[in-house]
Structures are given as C-alpha cells and as structure tokens.
C-alpha cells in the first residue's frame, strides 16, 4: 500500500470519533485538523501524540511519544504505521433519550403501581480526547450519536428511575404531578450523571427531562384518573364521597316509593340529614328525607262508607266520618280505644254509672249493679 501524503476528515457533526482508514504514514505526511477537531496518533491501542486544529507535518519533532516507541530515524522520509483518530470537540446538545418500555413505580400519594414513560435529551462535549478514545471508542471504526445513546442507555435509564422514585418519596407528590417538577428533576439527574461521564472524557452539558407520562390504556391509570375527576366534581359542588353515597341511597329509595329507617341510617343521614351540607344541596336532601315514607302504609275500610283509607288517618277522605274517638278532656284522638286514661292530658276514660258510681265495661244500656238506665 502506498504511503499517504495528506490525512484529513470532513465528517458530519453527528460523528464524535472517526479513524482514518489507512495506517501507512511517513514523516512527510500532512495532517490537517479542522476547527473543533483534535487528532490523536494511536499505536498498539495506546493513544500517543495529540494535535489541535491546523496543518501539521508529521516529523520527529511533533510526534515525540511515537518516536520513542518505534525509534524513528532522523532526517529523510521515514515510513511508519499508526492509526489517526479524529475527535469532534464541538458540543452536541440534542442527543435524544427515552424509556423504551414503561417503568413500574408506586405512587406515594395513592399507593398504587403505575407504569411511567419518560423522554428528553442531553448535551455532551468531548473534553479529554485520549481518555475518550481508550475508554469508550476501543476498536470501533466510528462512534456517533446513535452509539453514544446505546452505550449510555443503561446508565440514564437506571438514574432516571432512581431519581423519579426518590423525588416522589421525598416530595410526597403523585406521579401525575411530576411534570410540574421537570426542571428540578433534570438538574438532579445532571448532577448524578456528570461524574460518571467525566470518567470517559465527556462533559455532560445538560440532561433534560422533557416529559413524564403514564399510558392512558392502563387500568390502574384509568381508575385513578376517574376517581380524581369525581373528586374534583364533588369539590366544585361542595360535598364529599360519604354525602354522595347518601344522596344515591336517598335517590334510589325515592325511586322505589319507600324506604325503611334502617335504609336511611345506613346512608348515614337519619333525622340529622342536611347537617354539614351547605346551601341548596342540604335543603334538597332534607326535603327528600321528609317526602320519603319510612314505613309501608297500612290500609283499613271506613266504617261508614267502606272506602279504603290509611289506618293512621283521623277522618275518612270520602265521607268525613271521624275514625278515632276523641278524649272528652282535651279533644285529642285516642290511639287505643281501650285505654283507661288519655295519653295527652291524663283524663279518665273509665265509664261509671251516674247512679251508683260502678265502673262499666263495653256499651251496656243499664247498670249491672243498680239497674239504672244509662
């Protein structure tokens, strides 16, 4: 193979390291290094002499480390073999990263496991070309953005998971609220990853988390979002979950036409319904409770016209006949016709003979003691 005279590389900005394909050099070779580039001579896997931007004639004066290694003679055109690597020192700020599959994390606020996705971008700049070559590039002929992404994927995925989990626990916030803290999270991740990348001769300029999302199709996510939506609705109207359940119980009872007292007590309302519920909603609850029958109606026939009426009615709605005897003392209806005293005023309801004063049972026409007409 012929000895080359000019070595240069005019590659794209996405390439961080590129090896010149020919290793046959001489002390007359012209090495051209563009701005934002550095060139490194490598022999036997060891990074030796380093060249900045400009045009360099390889000779024994500017390749002293290589000369000591292979004992190049002075003067004349001396051929030798060595690798020439071009390192791109320009900052690359748009390297994309993302979680290929959701990360399962427990929400510290709602205590449920939720799958989390995240993505963003980071920026790097090669600061130590020799370290970068020996620790990262190795035997690869080229190293570009895609290779960098693949190489550090395990690192940033682990750090992202740990950082998000730690932040959730420390701040006591829900995963659904994490997008409000992206700036703090991004800086936290940059501080954790920068020392590791520095070991490879790379400066981490920034590490941005652009979004943290949860898949809407996940059952746990759907359930949580539905519950949060319902809670927001209740907060706007002004009632809580227990009151909502009470309302549903009352509504169900009203639609069926009747409810027992135990139903109402089970709904947590009883006689004190409406207490603690403000405004029109409380009044609505109270009105519903008053309108609901707490026991099934008992029917009986009017003794005068035979119309079916409520057993608790005082008068027949058809003919007006009084259905309950009244106390002679206070006029209140007597619930128990056989009672001896009025439960309202205590008036004696015992029948006595006006002649002898004997107590009378039933409806006799004559006194069984004295025979007097009643």
Can you put this structure into words, describing what you see?
The chain is of the alpha+beta class and 374 residues long. The chain has four domains: 6-88, no CATH class; 92-128 and 138-219, Band 7 domain (Tetrahydropterin Synthase, Chain A), CATH 3.30.479.30; 239-291, no CATH class; 322-374, no CATH class. The protein is 30% helix and 24% strand. The protein is built from eight helices and 18 strands. It has helices at 64-70, 129-137, 145-171, 182-198, 219-237, 241-256, 261-266, 279-291; strands at residues 6-7, 15-19, 24-26, 30-33, 37-43, 46-51, 54-57, 79-81, 83-88, 92-98, 103-106, 113-126, 142-144, 202-213, 299-301, 308-310, 351-352, 359-360. The strands form six sheets. It has a five-stranded antiparallel beta sheet with strand order 6-5-9-2-13. Strands 10, 11, 12 and 14 form a four-stranded antiparallel beta sheet that branches. It starts with 5 loop residues before the first strand and ends in a 14-residue tail after the last strand.
CATH topology of the largest domain: Tetrahydropterin Synthase, Chain A
What's the SSE pattern?
EEEEEEEHEEEEEHEHHEHHHHEEEE
Largest sheet, order of strands side by side?
6-5-9-2-13
Sheet of most strands: 5 strands, antiparallel
Radius of gyration: 48 Å
């Amino acid at each position: 193979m012929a000895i080359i005279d000019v070595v240069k590389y005019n590659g794209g900005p996405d390439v961080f390291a590129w090896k010149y394909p020919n290793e046959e050099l001489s002390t007359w070779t012209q090495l051209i290094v563009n701005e934002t580039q550095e060139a490194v001579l490598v022999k036997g896997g060891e990074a030796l002499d380093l060249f900045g931007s400009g045009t360099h004639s390889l000779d024994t004066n500017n390749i002293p480390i290589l000369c000591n290694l292979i004992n190049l003679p002075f003067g004349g055109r001396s051929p030798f073999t060595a690798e020439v690597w071009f390192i791109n020192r320009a900052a690359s700020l748009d390297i994309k990263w993302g979680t290929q599959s959701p990360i399962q994390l427990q929400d510290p606020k709602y205590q449920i496991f939720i799958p989390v996705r995240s993505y963003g971008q980071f920026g790097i700049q090669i600061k130590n070309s020799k370290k970068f070559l020996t620790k990262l590039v190795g035997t690869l002929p080229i190293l570009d953005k895609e290779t960098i992404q693949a190489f550090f994927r395990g690192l940033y995925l682990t750090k992202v998971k740990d950082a998000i989990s730690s932040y959730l626990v420390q701040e006591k916030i829900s995963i659904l609220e994490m997008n409000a803290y992206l700036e703090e999270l991004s800086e936290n991740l940059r501080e954790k990853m920068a020392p590791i990348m520095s070991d490879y001769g790379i400066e981490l300029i920034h590490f941005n988390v652009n979004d943290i999302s949860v898949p809407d199709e996940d059952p746990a996510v759907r359930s949580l979002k539905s519950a949060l939506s319902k809670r927001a609705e209740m907060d706007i109207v002004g009632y809580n979950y227990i009151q909502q359940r009470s309302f549903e119980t009352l509504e169900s009872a009203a639609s069926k036409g009747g409810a027992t007292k135990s139903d109402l007590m089970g709904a947590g309302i009883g006689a004190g319904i409406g207490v603690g519920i403000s405004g029109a909603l409380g009044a609505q609850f109270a009105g519903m409770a008053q309108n609901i029958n707490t026991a099934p109606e008992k029917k009986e026939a009017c003794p005068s016209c035979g119309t079916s009426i409520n057993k608790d009615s005082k008068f027949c709605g058809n003919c007006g006949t009084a259905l309950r005897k009244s106390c002679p003392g206070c006029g209140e209806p007597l619930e128990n016709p056989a009672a001896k005293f009025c439960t309202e005023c205590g008036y004696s309801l015992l029948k006595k003979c006006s002649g002898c004063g004997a107590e009378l049972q039933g409806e006799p026409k004559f006194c069984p003691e004295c025979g007097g007409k009643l």
